[in-house]
């Protein structure tokens, strides 16, 4: 989708959201050259703040390719927010229901139509105590294998410093002015999985391959070594 096809609603969202983002935050963006100029593709992004979607959407909007996010169905209920989400083509996800599969069909259709679909594979804010990506849901793997479209790993950091996840106090910390860091990488090599039966093991392997690339990019941003394995909140609970 070229910039000239971004459309009214996305342009309106940009008019509303970009000025405060520009005023309140500094930006450190890298890897825009990895965002495909045309054709359908997928981006997989880590999730550590409620501010993440705005931070990432700002980055990708400036490449000329707008993202379609998979968003909780409940977010579509408030009139203004729901109108904006529907107008910008975001995809509702009805969790734990028979309608959940519709989101993945819509995502496949969007990618096959030449659009970008953005996944937060973790499905929620990371539970990792050190804020690294955690084990993820396999929806991104399903769409990637069905479409064989490029999967662009993306890491972001800094939004969590302004709006910390699960904070019980001082939720918003705008001062001193934070830097929103976004880094996109080269497409994840998933060729070894093409043609394989999408068994649960294969889907988990594809998802982990994607998330390890995302984690490596985050390690570059943070200038810290990444953990040897992704944090698994279920195993953490079982070990408690």
Automatic annotation (TrEMBL):
<dbReference type="GO" id="GO:0006654">
    <property type="term" value="P:phosphatidic acid biosynthetic process"/>
</dbReference>
<dbReference type="Pfam" id="PF01553">
    <property type="entry name" value="Acyltransferase"/>
</dbReference>
<dbReference type="GO" id="GO:0003841">
    <property type="term" value="F:1-acylglycerol-3-phosphate O-acyltransferase activity"/>
</dbReference>
<dbReference type="InterPro" id="IPR002123">
    <property type="entry name" value="Plipid/glycerol_acylTrfase"/>
</dbReference>
<keyword id="KW-0012">Acyltransferase</keyword>
<protein>
    <submittedName>
        <fullName>1-acyl-sn-glycerol-3-phosphate acyltransferases</fullName>
    </submittedName>
</protein>
<keyword id="KW-0808">Transferase</keyword>
<feature type="domain" description="Phospholipid/glycerol acyltransferase">
    <location>
        <begin position="41"/>
        <end position="159"/>
    </location>
</feature>
<dbReference type="GO" id="GO:0005886">
    <property type="term" value="C:plasma membrane"/>
</dbReference>
């Amino acid at each position: 989708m070229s910039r000239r096809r971004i459309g009214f609603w996305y342009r309106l969202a940009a008019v509303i959201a970009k000025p405060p983002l520009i005023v309140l935050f500094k930006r450190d963006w890298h890897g825009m050259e990895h965002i495909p100029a045309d054709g359908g593709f997928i981006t997989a992004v880590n999730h550590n703040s409620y501010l993440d979607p705005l931070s990432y959407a700002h980055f990708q909007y400036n490449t000329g390719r707008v993202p379609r996010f998979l968003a909780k169905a409940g977010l579509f209920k408030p009139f203004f927010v729901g109108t904006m989400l529907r107008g910008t083509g975001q995809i509702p996800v009805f969790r734990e229901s028979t309608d959940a599969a519709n989101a993945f069909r819509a995502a496949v259709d969007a990618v096959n139509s030449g659009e970008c679909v953005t996944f937060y594979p973790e499905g929620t804010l990371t539970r990792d105590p050190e804020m690294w990506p955690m084990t993820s849901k396999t929806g991104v793997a399903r769409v990637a294998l069905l479409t064989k479209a490029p999967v662009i790993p993306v890491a972001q950091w800094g939004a969590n410093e302004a709006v910390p996840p699960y904070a019980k106090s001082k939720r918003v910390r705008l001062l001193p002015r934070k830097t929103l860091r976004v880094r996109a990488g080269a497409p994840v090599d998933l060729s070894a999985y093409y043609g394989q039966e999408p068994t649960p093991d294969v889907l988990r392997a594809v998802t982990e391959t994607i998330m390890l690339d995302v984690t490596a990019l985050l390690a570059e941003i943070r200038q810290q070594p990444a953990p040897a394995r992704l944090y698994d909140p279920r195993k953490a609970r079982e070990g408690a």
